[in-house]
Amino acid sequence: MQGAFTGVCSKAHVPSFLKHADSLKGKGAEDIICVSVNDPYTLNAWAEKLGAKDKVISHGISLHARESVSS
């Protein structure tokens, strides 16, 4: 994901995952995980705003992203 609260992620990406969650899980997906560089607090607030709190697992990877860029 580009980032929490960005236009395309809020209006297209996450809503699409939510719309197709049952289908994805029916095909064997155990979880839907959105990865972004935001901190977990921001991701949780964003998930709540989108109604995705209990449907999508958010994982902030900002530390990993910084390490990758530095390498």
Regions with pLDDT < 50 over 5+ consecutive residues?
64-71
Which oligomerization state do the chains in this entry correspond to?
single chain
Shape descriptor reads: globular
The name of the CATH topology is Glutaredoxin
What count of domains describes the coordinates?
1
Classified in CATH, the superfamily is Glutaredoxin
Query: Strand order within the widest sheet?
Result: 1-2
Provide an overview of this structure:
With 71 residues, the chain is mainly α. It has one domain: Glutaredoxin. It is built from four helices and two strands. A two-stranded parallel sheet has the order 1-2. The longest helix is centred in the first third of the chain and has 13 residues. It is globular, with a radius of gyration of 13 Å. It starts with 6 loop residues before the first helix and ends with a helix. The C terminus is likely disordered.
